Structure formats: C-alpha cells, structure tokens
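Team,

Forwarding the record for the chain on the shared tracking sheet. I've put the sequence and predicted structure together so nobody has to dig through attachments.
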Amino acid sequence: MKKLSLFVLSTLLFAGISFAQSAKTAEWPEMKSFHTLMSATFHPAEEGNFAPLKEKVAQLYRASKVWYASEIPANYKPEETKAILNKLMIQCHDIWAQVDAKASDEKLKQMITEAHDSFHKIVGECKKDK
C-alpha cells in the first residue's frame, strides 16, 4: 500500500510539473500563429524571395488582426503591447495594399522588415520584467 501511495504521489507531482511547463510555453497562441506567418514571409523576403510574402500577405494581415483582438497575457505591459500590436496590424495592412499595387521588391522588403521589428518589440520590450 505504501508503494502504491508513493507511486500515485510521484505521478501527480510529475503531472503538475508537466502542466506548469506547458502553460509557460503556450502562453499566447495568437502570437504563435502570427509568428509562423511572419517567419514564412519575412525570412524568404530577406533572401530576395518575395513569392511567400505576396502569396500570404492577406493571411499575415488577418493573423495580425486576430492577435490584436486577443487578450494580452498578464506578463506583458498592456498599454505598450496594444499600441505596438495596433501599429503592426496597420503595417501588415499597408504591406497587403503595396503588394496589390505591385510595389517594388525593395519597398516590400523595407516594409516587412519594419513589421518584423515591431513583432520583436512586442516579444521583447513589451514583456514585464521577471
């Protein structure tokens, strides 16, 4: 009986630690979705391949809107985060408009780089100190 109690206790403890770890890493699913699209468009553009950006720009904008509308986690500064999310959403819309207007690749690279910088401000500077 003592071995069974020890087994149950250690199983519950392990499950609790696993749950706490997964809660830490999956803190903002809308950010993760946006990041997936940002990576798929920015990094190829950085290398001179603008096809992914041109193909996925509408999805990028929609993901920015969803992210903007989502609840900001407690470990982020709410005012600063909301302001930069708004800026990022506008940047993504503007990129979409420029893709539709057949802007130069140079212009698109500048714009996606600025949007990428905004993304990193949110991920880095908007987090509260630990």
